[in-house]
Amino acid sequence: MTELTSAAADYRAALVRFVEGRVRDRAAAEDIVHDVLLRVVEKQTQLRDETKLAPWLYQMTRNAIADHHRGARPSEELPEELAAPEPEPQALRELAECLTPFIERLPEHYREAFELSEVQGVTQQETARRLGISLSGAKSRVQRARAKLQDMVLECCTIERDHRGSIVDHECRRVCGCT
């Protein structure tokens, strides 16, 4: 064990208390800290100034806590008062019809990536394979298509959002191809 990993291990009890205060589960806290200490061993060359060991450890620990919470969310049921109401099928069809002309106006390379990934539900990895481009290229094209669509829609339509930012209604301010 190197001097650095030995010093990091000295923080173990404090890190477990720190994590347990944020996840409210002793076993999960122990697991998270164990993973953090393993990362310390893997990434010890990244710490250039050993006097900054504590901030580095706590930042890695905060990141691990965030990862833990992100991983737990999909299996947890959303409280009913927070669940978004299901949009009416008619409202969904209207919104989809409104977006179609905008999607058609996208440059072809953005449109292809967007339609595969967002409309057809193909993974971005598969989108990249089908288009013969890198994964980062596919992600970039999808992101740029989203940004262009957002600009087009906001130029034409008024969007109403709920308190969580979800779209609940829209209205076209002028004739722009979506009505």
Structure characterization notes:
With about 180 residues, the protein is mostly helical. It has two domains: about 5-75, Orthogonal Bundle (Rna Polymerase Sigma Factor, Chain: A); about 90-170, Arc Repressor Mutant, subunit A (Orthogonal Bundle), CATH 1.10.10. About 65% of the residues lie in helices and about 5% in strands. It is built from eight helices and two strands. It has helices at about 5-10, 10-25, 25-45, 55-70, 90-105, 110-120, 125-130, 135-155; strands spanning about 155-160, 165-170. Strands 1-2 form a two-stranded antiparallel ribbon. The longest helix is centred in the last third of the chain and has 22 residues, at about 135-155. The termini are far apart. The model has no long low-confidence stretch (mean pLDDT about 80).
Show the helix and strand layout.
Elements: H1 3-10, H2 12-23, H3 26-43, H4 53-72, H5 89-105, H6 108-119, H7 124-131, H8 135-156, E1 157-161, E2 167-172
Antiparallel strand pairs: 1-2
Helix pairs in contact: 2-3, 2-4, 3-4, 6-7, 6-8, 7-8
Quick overview:
The chain is mainly alpha-helical. It has helices spanning 3-10, 12-23, 26-43, 53-72, 89-105, 108-119, 124-131, 135-156, and strands at residues 157-161, 167-172.
The succession of helices and strands, N to C, reads HHHHHHHHEE
CATH homolog superfamily of the largest domain: Winged helix-like DNA-binding domain superfamily/Winged helix DNA-binding domain
How many helical elements? Answer: 8
Strand order, largest beta sheet: 1-2
Shape: elongated
